[in-house]
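Worked example (supplementary).
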Amino acid sequence: MLRALQLEPAKCTGCQQCELACSYENEGVFNPSKSRIKVFTFHHEGRFAPYTCTQCDEAWCMHACPVEAITLNTATGAKEVSDVDCVGCKVCTIACPFGTVNYNHDTGKVMKCDLCGGDPWCAKACPTGAITYVDVDNAGFERMRAWAQQSPQGPATYNAPRPKDVATYTRTN
Amino acid sequence: MAWTGNVLRVNLTTGEISTEALNQQWAQEYLGQRGLATKYLYEEIDPKIDALSPDNKLIMVTGPLTGTMASTGGRYSVVTKSPLTGAVACSNSGGFIGAELKMAGWDMIIFEGRAPRPVYLHIENERAELLPADDLWGKSVWDTDEELHRRYQDPLLRISCVGRAAEQGNLYAGVINDLHRAAGRSGVGTVMASKHLKAVACRGTKGVGNLKDPMRFLQAAEQAKKVLADSAVTGQGLPQYGTQVLMNVINEIGALPTHNMQEVQFEGASKISGEAMHEPRPTDHQPNLTTNAACFGCTIACGRISTMDKGHFTIENKPQYWGASGGLEYEAAWALGTDTGVDDLETLTYANYLCNEDGFDPITFGSTVAAAMELYETGVITDEDTGGIELKFGSARALAQCAELTAKGEGFGKILGLGSKRLCEKYRHPELSMTVKGQEFPAYDPRGIQGMGLAYATSNRGACHLRGYTVASEVLGIPEKTDPLVTDGKPELVKAFQDATAAVDSSGLCVFTTFAWTLEDIAPQLDAACEGDWTADKLLEVGERIWNLERDFNLRAGLTGKDDTLPKRLRKDAAKTGPAKGMVNELDKMLPHYYEIRGWTPQGELTDDTRRRLGL
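After joint prediction of all chains, the assembly is encoded as:
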């Protein structure tokens, strides 16, 4: 079964645990500015929206890359950046319609979500279940977009941490 | 290491900015944040100085777990000498700027002197620059925040700043960060404004790493998050109702101070409770609460984001208040509402917005209004004094007017901005100020919760619930239930809470975790992150050292054991209703034994033995 990250903004509290987990797995530091997943805060609406690469099938970034540094991982469906091949031209950051490929000025390479090789840390770290790793056929991206655009007023929501099993983190990068 | 090892020192008088290495020995002895900054303050200033003189220093400080993946690891503190109390001040805040300072590579920033003209500090990683703030001076917190974000075109810039209240000399002004999180108490914002420092704007992209044993840390943090998620308080009550979960609970046990602490129960409590914030309003069929929200790294998410009724009389012509913003927490709802007798949720939300927008402490403000209301109702204060405000208990309009004037430091708001001690002295009724060491009480009446009386009286920053929250034990049964109406065992309980809290406040974590965590949950996280051996016992020892250092600062500043007291009202006037009916706070039965177990003299001074034992 191919799986995808399912993002549900209505469950997000804006805590950034996902960004901390992502940056630690990928960079070895807690650093939201180097995270492949971002939480956007809509202050005046009182809403939070986590956002990352959707792993497009016909990935704009992959097609746009002039040096074929972005390749498909057939096991996970992730489009992965090879730091060896990337020349930092940033064309992929322009090609991506969602802005989920970003340049890292410390390395001179671009960075994007690689699904942590099939065990995404962001989903494990999310306390409320706003980020889950599910059957790709059920990932509700359109619902997220609709939600993010909806009228700010509505019934009060609150998101409590889910009673949880203790996750194990294993670094792959 | 968890600490970055870097201290930024900013001399505002000369404009000189320098960097220095963190004193690692002090880090081992005082951990970080509250403890470590207090040590720096203790060593660097004479405690007798005028808090608003250039001789005072102001320290913004993170903890070793700030910026890590530990739940709630985003805290920072502002430490200085308080202009409200003359004692040491340490105000703790969440939001996001604490982690941002750490991500930029700094454990703490020490501000010295006074800038000749208003300035703000812009930090981008190792680059720190003082810039003119003449155009920001006179602006509210919210306008300053908006302008700095516009200027740098960076939505992730994190900002701490002071509002107009601080500029106008309000003695309980806070430092507000991320629009509505506050280092709120004891006037730390007043000190910042006295230094002509308007704001600190920070962007850090270096991250926090270099932990002692990162994989062990991740597992310890993960185990601890499970404890938070599984707890009824941190896993359910706080996310759903915020701290406002307490309003009805504390009212029922007869410990909800009402009408300037004349009563211990409020008939309007349920109307302004956490539950009420979920109820659709009759006017626009929307609830006051929009959502809960987390500070950096927090898996509890107790924060309230509210949206007011656009037709409410306070904001009907003010669209700037129509969007979602920081809503009521229990302390604010209590002080602005219960203590003043105002039971209109929308007005309290409005007053709370103004406290955030212009940076003043809603606890002290609400309590000061309550004291003024009592003086008004007894005829001591007249319409002439108030500028025509009909300052009666229960008047929502009066509360809104007072908040508007206090935000700008105008009219009667200038007097309200002095706090209740100075206000009551001005009108020759000092006994009506509900304060310890000049700082107002929070939302727990010590007649109905005896241990809190001792905690208030001995708190190093004046009356405060966060210096020893024995409510946890006496009311909620955490970690074990004690009887709130008895004094037996309370000195030991208060000391244990005070020491443990001092350690938690020095770690970078939020004290609200202790609704579920003990030091046994915190120590493994610190031990995996920080150099040294960090056990629960060591944390208690560090906490006790911090407590005594703060005490020593205060004694050197001129405070004495005589300041460890409560207003006569709480010691002589019995509670009129509820489970504590007929009771006063019996501080005298607790204080001598407390001094004894602290290792202090009967006058409340540190003995040589105690100093030696704690390495002071």
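Two points are worth noting when inspecting this output. The two ends of chain B are 25 Å apart (CA to CA). The mean pLDDT of chain B is 97.
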